[in-house]
Amino acid sequence: MAQKPGIFPTFFISGFECSTFLWKDKKRRNLVHETQHHQFVQQDYELLRSLGIAVAREGIPWPLVDTNGKYDFSCIDPMLEAMNQNKILPIWDLCHYGYPDDLDPFLDNFVERFAAYCRAAAEYVTPKLPGPYFFTPINEITFFSFCGGEWGWVAPYKNTKEDRFQLRLNLCKAAIAGVKAIREVTPDARMIHIDPLVQVVAPRDRPDQEAAAHHETYVDTFLAWDILYGKELPELGGSPEILDIVGANNYSFGQMEYREHGPHQALPPDDDRIKPLCDLLRLVWERYRRPMIIGETSGLKEGRTAWLKDVMEESLAAVDAGMDLHGICLFPAVDMPDWHTGEWLNNGICNLILEGDVLRRQPHEPYIAELRRWQKELNRVTVLDPDPFSDPVELADVIAAAKRLNKKPDKNWS
């Protein structure tokens, strides 16, 4: 019996890029196909098993399974089979920037259709897996609102702050309705609502933009979570149980210098305005006091190893400060392309090497060695047990490691 049981069977989590948006060229992207995860799903889950990772973020492609409210979930059957064979527990992303062609995300029928789809998805996957069951109804509501509502990168291709605000509001309504629909099927299903950790600062020569940067950091970043929690617009039905588990994504480009038009400018690694990750996590913890995970994090290229070291040190500083952190998601498990250029980002546990028509998985060994080091520091498994679901993570081990290592927050991104 765990002294302080965690929510998940392993502290380290991973996942697979599964976006299905309509891109700027009006063509549907399917990142599961672009990374050939659908072809290599068995190998991809065997990889996680060999790394001692029993939890993975995986997508159900809403625009591909829902045709005018008629469902065909057969495209995820290979994922379900591989999960069962390798004893991997999924966190199902139900809307990863993509929605069916016949829907308008600003209208009420979007909310109704999403709730019906969430119910159908839960009815499909839960009988096929042993549980427990985890869902992310709408991935990164805040970021989705920016790239589809203000920047025009993806459908619905809007380009004003007002459109962004309205899109975010309707996505929050849909997420709340989706949670309720899922729990009609599986009352004990857990939700993880994921959005980026963000800090925005004004340019040094533009003190007139300080108020806007401050608002984006301390108000705008949190509004979707606030609505889901019921802090804002409680008439929409949000509550602490709806928000449930907070997934905070951490990337270097989440700390930015304000730009009035278009995406903000990422701060360089040596910028003295950077905040430690622990401080950003504290903002989330003090606001909601809900269980937390780092929902996505990764470095790039040869920086992956140093990035993981920094994230772990900051995370243990957060644990030592009393934050209820239940896991860290090394995302993605296999590489993904830059949406804009198509170049491989080299941010996965495995790189993808094109050989003919096949994307060969090539493990990035230094990154894996750093993962192994931290698994041992935290007294975690490095290869999955025959039944990894038999015991949850012993968070007392993580807390003990945090106290023993005594890491302090710093601004170093390595």
Notes on the structure:
The chain is an alpha/beta fold. It has a single domain, classed as TIM Barrel (Alpha-Beta Barrel). The chain contains 14 helices and 15 strands. It has an eight-stranded parallel beta barrel, surrounded by four helices. It has a three-stranded mixed β-sheet with strand order 8-10-11. The protein is globular and about 50 Å long. The model has no long low-confidence stretch (mean pLDDT 97).
Low-confidence stretches: none
Summarize the main sheet.
Answer: 8 strands, parallel, barrel
Helix content: 25-40%
**Strand content bin:** 15-25%
Q: Which structural class best describes the helix and strand composition?
A: alpha/beta
In brief:
By secondary structure, this protein is of the alpha/beta class. The chain is built from 14 helices and 15 strands.
Give the key terms.
TIM Barrel, 414 residues, eight-stranded parallel β-barrel, alpha/beta, 37% helix, three-stranded mixed sheet
What layout of secondary structure does this protein have?
Elements lengths: L11 E4 L15 H4 L6 H10 L4 E5 L2 H4 E2 L2 E2 L5 H10 L2 E5 L14 H18 L8 E3 L4 H9 L11 H25 L4 E7 L2 E3 L8 H9 L4 H7 L10 H4 L1 E5 L5 E3 L7 E2 L10 H12 L3 E6 L6 H17 L4 E6 L19 E6 L2 E6 L1 H13 L17 H11 L9
Parallel strand pairs: 1-2, 1-13, 2-5, 5-6, 6-7, 7-9, 8-10, 9-12, 12-13
Antiparallel strand pairs: 3-4, 10-11, 14-15
Helix pairs in contact: 2-4, 5-7, 6-7, 11-12, 12-13, 12-14
